[in-house]
Every structure is written in C-alpha cells, then in structure tokens.
Amino acid sequence: MQKIKTRDVIVIGFALFSMFFGAGNLIFPPHLGMTSGDEWLTGFSCFIFVEVFLSCVGIYAMVLGGGSITALEDAIGKIPGRILNIIIILCTGVLIAPPRTAATTFEMSIAPFTDKISLLAFSIIFFAIVFITTIRPTRFVDIIGKYLTPILVICTFILIIAGIVNPIGEIAPPLSSTVAQDGVIAGYQTMDILAVVGFGIVMLNTLRLKGYTDHKVQLKAIIYICIVAGLLLCSIYGGLAYLGATSSQVISHDLNQAQLIVAITRHLLGSTGTLILGIIVGFACLTTAIGLAGATAYFFEKISNGKIKYQTWIVINILISASLCNLGLTSIINLAVPILTTICPPFMVTVILLLFRNHIKNNAIYKVCAFIGLIFGLYYTIQSYI
C-alpha cells in the first residue's frame, strides 16, 4: 500500500480547516457563547457536533462513496440526488457563502479603519483575488495550506489566549432558553455540513494530483486530514465561544454577530486587536471563498461532462457572488436561515447513512429518511415564521 506523507496530510488538513473556517465560523461561536452564558459548553457541544463532527464525517462519507456526486445520486436516486447536489452547491458556492465571506471581510476588516472604500469597490478587489488564486485548479489547495492558513491560525490563537489570560468578565446565566437548539442552528449557519459536497470533490482531486490513486489509501489519508482539520476547528471554536461567554456582562447584547467579535477584540487588545482581527477575518473569509469557488467549478465541470469548463464557471461564479455581496451581511444571513433550515436535515441524514453503505443496501431506506428529514426541515422553517 502506498505510504501517506505526513507533509501532505498537514498541508491538505490545514487547507481543509481554512476552507471550513470562514465567515460564519468566526462570527457565530462568540455570539453563541454570549447567549449561552454559563451553559456555553452545552451550546458549544451542539455546535461542534453539527459543524465539525458531521462535516468531517461527511467528507469521509463522500470519499467512501466515490465522490459527492455519485454518493448522493446512488443513495437517493439520480434525479433527487442531482437536484439536492445542485441546490447545495449553489448555496455554498455561489448564492450565500461567497457573498457572505466578502461582506463579512468588508464589515470587520475594512469598515473599522476607513469609510473611503465602498462595499462595491471592495467586493471587486476581493473576488479578483479569488479569481487569480483559483483560475489554475492545481494550485489553490497548496496556496491555502502552505501560506494562508498558518497566518490565520497564529492570529486567531493570539486573540483567544489574550481572552483566557485576561477574561473580559464573569460568565453570567444564559440569555437564551434554547441553548442546545441555538448551537445546532449556529452549526447550520456556518454551512460547512453542506460544503462537504464541494470540498469532498476538492479533497479527492487534490489526493489524486499528489499521486494517491488507490481508494483505500485515499480513505486513510482523508481520516488523517479530517483529524488535523477537526482538532484545529474544535480548539478555535472553543476559544471563541469562551470569549463570548465572558463578554455577556460587559458588552452590549444588541450587537450583531460581526459587531460582537469586533467589540470583544477591541476590549482585549485595543487598536492592535482590531488590526489582528482584520487579518483573521481577511484570511478566514478569503480561504473559504477560494475553496468554495474551486469546488463549485469542479462540480459543474463534472456534471456537465466537461461542457462547462472549470475556468468558465470560475468567472460566472465570481460575477454572481460579487453582485450578491452588495446586499450586505445582515441581508445575506437573513436570506440563508430558511434555506439552510430546510435543506440541512435531509442532507445530514443521508450523509450519516452513507457511512453504512456497505451494510444498508436498500436505497428505499435512504429515500424515506431523506424525505422525513425534508419534512422536518420544512416544518421548522415554517414554524420560524408563524
């Protein structure tokens, strides 16, 4: 069996961490910590289950099934599987996540320093960088893993360590009566459980480009890669949730998610902290946007049998994402909630069942469970508007 290089595992694991650790991953844990108060570990655990555990399991399940496209289509049928795949890819790779990454970067990395750059101008610059980085499909995973992620991790740990050494305040009772549910919804909002469709394709392609062609070797490598990414994600999420929990008696509860992390950083590190946060946000959102753009382009090239080339979809993707970015962060988050609440349950159920593909041969089981998940998703979506 081919030997797996430790260096490849670390670089690809760092890249997967960075692709997961985007806009929502940074802004939702502190807000969850604030509303959870002294029950923040409960909210954090539910968040981690959806955001880290199910996402890593999803990546493995997709590779186990031979790739995200075939895995879903073989389980629930070609037409419903293709529809679910397309909806997920459009949400994670075009309509919601990429615009949100750019809008978050602007609000947290640019707006605090100057009002001379408009969101429109910034979105053009942001997505131009994404274009330059992703237009050559063989490069972007190494660029993320080798160069961008180490800077992101170092800056984030500086902020977390500052909050642990010198806590903002005492942890108060929870502001919410639904801490566990809040954790699950925050996990939905990061959209990482859905991003496994695209990221699964990226991971497989990257392993193949590095010479790992045997399926058993790919599965073993994916386990190691997910462990690297998962440990980093859990460490950083736990730190951010703790910062939010310590801020509930000091910082206003009226701030939105992005404003809260800005306020926390200023309280801990002053003006220097604002600069560090700007670096964290910029790199976190940029790496995610790069990963999603590449994954989406891979997906549409594959399902079109090469009729839509990778480079063509990169251009289309960036133009649409840059346009939607100018709706602003709050509007994008509000748009995402009903969509994600509806499609996450059927997808999550299917992904979990795919782990037992060798034991569950009857496709009717996958179809029925996915349909039940969809019903529950629709129910909770409707309930939120009643």
From TrEMBL:
GO molecular function annotation: L-isoleucine transmembrane transporter activity; L-leucine transmembrane transporter activity; L-valine transmembrane transporter activity
Residues that span the membrane, as ranges: 9-28, 40-67, 79-97, 117-135, 147-165, 185-209, 221-245, 275-300, 312-333, 339-357, 364-382
UniProt keyword annotation of Transmembrane present: yes
Any GO BP annotation: isoleucine transport
Domain of life: Bacteria
Membrane topology: Multi-pass membrane protein
Transmembrane helix among keywords: yes
Family matches, as Pfam families: Branch_AA_trans
Chief localisation class: membrane
Keywords: Amino-acid transport, Cell membrane, Membrane, Transmembrane, Transmembrane helix, Transport
Residues in coiled coil: none
GO cellular component: plasma membrane
Subcellular location: Cell membrane
Signal peptide extent: none
Membership in a protein family: Belongs to the branched chain amino acid transporter family.
Function statement: Component of the transport system for branched-chain amino acids.
Name this protein carries in UniProt: Branched-chain amino acid transport system carrier protein
The species this protein was found in: Megamonas hypermegale
